[in-house]
Amino acid sequence: MANRSHRNAGHRAMNALNKAGQKHSSDALVNADASARTKHVYEVGDCLDMLAKIPDNSVQLIVCDPPYNILLADWDDHANYIAWAKTWLAEAERVLSSTGSIAIFGGLQYQGEAGSGDLLSIISHMREHSKMLLANLIIWNYPNGMSAQRFFANRHEEIAWFAKTKKYYFDLDAVREPYDEATKAAYMKDKRLNPESVEKGRNPTNVWRIGRLNGNSLERVGHPTQKPAAVIERLVRALSYPGSTVLDFFAGSGVTARVAIQEGRNSICTDADPVFREYMTKQLGFLRAEGLLNSVRQYDVVEGLENLDPSYEALTPGIPEAAE
Ligand SMILES: C[S@@+](CC[C@H](N)C(=O)[O-])C[C@H]1O[C@@H](n2cnc3c(N)ncnc32)[C@H](O)[C@@H]1O
């Protein structure tokens, strides 16, 4: 089938700007003060209660890894999945800034196992009921996983990246992959290629080969579906900028908070399970053990939005409306 990615409205707008030699208006955001002290709030509670407390257009990136009715745990059970999901999807759209994005994790392989929820049903709901643009369907391809006898063993999950508007922020340079020395030397000699681009490295594409966390991974805090920091890091680096706010209302292991601290973003994380507090303590312990952060980045962590002084404004530092 022909490649129709050029028909994607977001891609078309960005390509038009590039061809005209113009910078996207959100490029100005890259110069935000990366050394500022960042704020991190976490709460135990329902996603909708947290969302209700967040102002409109105030969040740059939502990392969203929802439960999918596959009965992995008590929280993984919703009788009418889409009726529930559409409430937080609408709230997510409301709180995102015009340059903002939501990255929704999921897969298609569980469909029908225990209910009506999977990423396909979310994407199809968004197509009909949301103005957000599907910028990419990212394939997270992992080399490790369960074996299978009656079908091909699964080695991928998907991440649907929706942008709130076509003015979405995207920093490709922050996530380029360096070429190996031999390839780089060959490309540098190739007159058809721009040496500056070769120097920057390659676009990592929408297929990300990153291992899942093994049972004995040092990153693990005990959550059954903890995602690797490397996956969250790539989303945070590409789709948010220093000083902006990242929200995760199904925060699970707290990995998003940890990555936000490391990357100089603010964060708001919530999870319904009280064990989340213990996971956060472990994540913060990892950061302290790594040591380097105290000298490089200054950050405050508080439990409960109401304990953030002076107010939520600290989390939404002057997100400018991107120009037309
Ligand atoms: C798939 S896990 C998220 C894992 C997380 N991304 C990580 O890497 O650690 C989904 C999480 O959603 C939480 N959850 C389920 N229903 C919730 C609700 N209504 N509000 C907030 N959190 C909820 C569960 O406790 C669970 O930790």
From TrEMBL:
It comes from Sphingomonas dokdonensis. This is site-specific DNA-methyltransferase (adenine-specific). It catalyses: a 2'-deoxyadenosine in DNA + S-adenosyl-L-methionine = an N(6)-methyl-2'-deoxyadenosine in DNA + S-adenosyl-L-homocysteine + H(+). The keyword Hydrolase does not apply. CDD domains: AdoMet_MTases. Residues 59-278 form the DNA methylase N-4/N-6 domain. It is an enzyme of class 2 (transferase). Gene3D superfamilies: Vaccinia Virus protein VP39 (3.40.50.150). Its EC number is 2.1.1.72.
